[in-house]
Amino acid sequence: MVADALSPVSTLCLAILYRGDRTGYEIKKESVEGDYSYFVDASYGSIYPALARLAGDGYVTVREELQSGRPSRKIYAITDAGRAILVEALSLPPSPDVFRSRFLLVAKFALELPVSVVESAVAERRRELVAELDHLRAMCPDEPGTAGAWITGYGVACLSASLAYLDAHSERLVAMAGRPVEGAANRPVPVPDAAE
Amino acid sequence: MVADALSPVSTLCLAILYRGDRTGYEIKKESVEGDYSYFVDASYGSIYPALARLAGDGYVTVREELQSGRPSRKIYAITDAGRAILVEALSLPPSPDVFRSRFLLVAKFALELPVSVVESAVAERRRELVAELDHLRAMCPDEPGTAGAWITGYGVACLSASLAYLDAHSERLVAMAGRPVEGAANRPVPVPDAAE
DNA sequence: TGATCCATGTAAGCCGTTACATGATTGG
DNA sequence: CCAATCATGTAACGGCTTACATGGATCA
């Protein structure tokens, strides 16, 4: 019975449709611009097939709206079964949150990289953080006290902390750059065991 | 010439080998336990093939060590070409950092989910954060002032901020649970346009 | 005695991205 | 006039995970 865990993209579609009817195109936009981007960042190539499957399984319905001069829109709406399976899916033990950072790998190799590389990596990371913060702050039309405001607050808290750390310590990192430790590169190293 | 960007797993292998010779098995361990887990979390199924390809391309060398009673270990060592391409790869404009959270989706649907689900999602997320923080703090054998200490500091800053937010606001979130707004579920919604 | 660690690898399959195909309308 | 927006889809390809296959040694 339990359709055994929806794929992330299907979950995303149902979550967005839960709040109102949408076309595939609009779901894509909302997944990127709205506050769903922290969940998955889906592309058309995964959204359209997912919607087709959801429709086949009866979790959403489609209604086609003809338009002059434009391809007809397919407007999807969630069904009771869809709402039920979404709640079920969200009730399963959650997979852990994931944080993946190319930037931190660059930071880890600060000594071995040219100063310019470390500098621009820091600058780029900073730009990203500021942009995300602005985005978050700009988009919360939710009255305070709602779930939307809660998750926005969470995001702001994390991003602000990153930004603060970066601003406080980036100079120190840049100062390390371009000074590979003599011979430390690949000294036959006392074999990993010795590390313990 | 530019072997055009290494795959994440290849980059990981070279990064770890840069610090010393390792077997595939050890690389896996280090990618999970060491401070590389923020970068990618690779499995054997991706590490072994990656090492084979790196060896074929001359970025690493292999030396086989026979052992009695155990399968022989293949010890990989990075070459000059390997070091060069790693630096080159890390010098390319970095792809943006990624944060993916199932937990935040649950939080967004707090109203629509049973109290118990929200409660345990919060508890689970908290447990994860504490574990990661302990892990980070426990493992920094690096003297302060090193790149390793820098990235550990970054991680601690982010995780602490998340934890602080959670501790300060989780009760409010749980209090929202199980009270779906009347009819707000799928009211035909004023069509997304109206939101602008 | 049974689980866990060491140790290497392969094969199937999933899930998703990128690029392609098409094309009118609107805004700068 | 050019770019972006609206709008739907397919096909090829890529990368990673899961499960399988094997098996002695060590520890509880």
Write the layout of secondary structure elements.
2 copies of one chain form a homodimer.
Chain A: H1 8-18, H2 24-33, H3 44-56, E1 60-67, E2 70-78, H4 80-91, E3 98-100, H5 102-108, H6 115-139, H7 147-176
Antiparallel strand pairs in A: 1-2
Chain B binds a DNA duplex (28 and 28 nucleotides) through residues 7-9, 23-25, 40, 42-46, 48-49, 52, 67-74.
Concise overview:
By secondary structure, chain A is mostly helical. Helix content of chain A is 55%, strand content 10%. The first copy, chain A, is built from seven helices and three strands.
Please provide a written account of the structure:
- The structure is a homodimer of 196-residue chains.
- A two-stranded antiparallel ribbon of chain A has the order 1-2.
- The first copy, chain A, is elongated and about 65 Å long.
- The model of chain A is unreliable at 187-196 (pLDDT under 50).
- In chain A, 34% of the residues are buried.
- The N and C termini of chain A lie far apart (49 Å).
- In chain A, helix 2 crosses helix 3.
- In chain A, 55% of the residues lie in helices and 10% in strands.
- Chain A has 196 residues and is mainly alpha-helical.
- Chain A contains seven helices and three strands, in the order H-H-H-E-E-H-E-H-H-H.
- The structure holds a DNA duplex (28 and 28 nucleotides).
